[in-house]
Amino acid sequence: MQKFQMQYENSYRNVEQAKINSQAKAQIIQIAKDVKKENTLTQALADTLIDKVLIYPDNRIEVVWKIQDFCMDMEAVKIS
User: Fold this and answer.
1) How many CB atoms lie within 10 A of CB 50?
2) Contacts of 61 (CB under 8 A, 6+ apart)
3) Contact 49/35 with Cβ under 8 angstroms?
4) What are the tens digits of pLDDT across the range 32-73?
5) 67 vs 51: CA distance, rounded Å
6) Where are the alpha helices (DSSP H) in the chain?
7) Residue 64's beta-bridge partner residues?
8) Other C-beta atoms within 10 Å of 73: how many?
């Protein structure tokens, strides 16, 4: 009986993780659609995509994105 309980719990965790992954993909797709609609970087779009911008004394700028590997994740997804 304990073996079946463990299998059930593992299956439940897998289903919950799949739901989270699905929701994350749906969010990425929606953001990509919003990006596709815009022809300029609006404040709303910047707020959606950019976590922070770091400016260093040597005039170097680093953008920290909210969504890691955004372009890489979207290569396999066709945005209509």
Assistant:
1) 14
2) 53, 54, 55
3) yes
4) 777 777 777 788 878 878 889 999 999 899 988 887 665 555
5) 9
6) 2-37, 43-49, 70-74
7) 52
8) 15
Q: Which of 51, 54, 70 is nearest to 62 (CA)?
A: 54
Tokens read off for 61:
């700028």
Domain map (residue ranges) of the chain: 2-74
What is the residue type of 51? D
Question: Which residue type sits at 46?
Answer: A
Nearest alpha-carbon partner for 38 in 28, 26, 46: 46
The one-letter amino acid code at 75 reads: E
The DSSP letter of residue 79 is: -
Residue 19 has which token pair? Answer: 């739901």
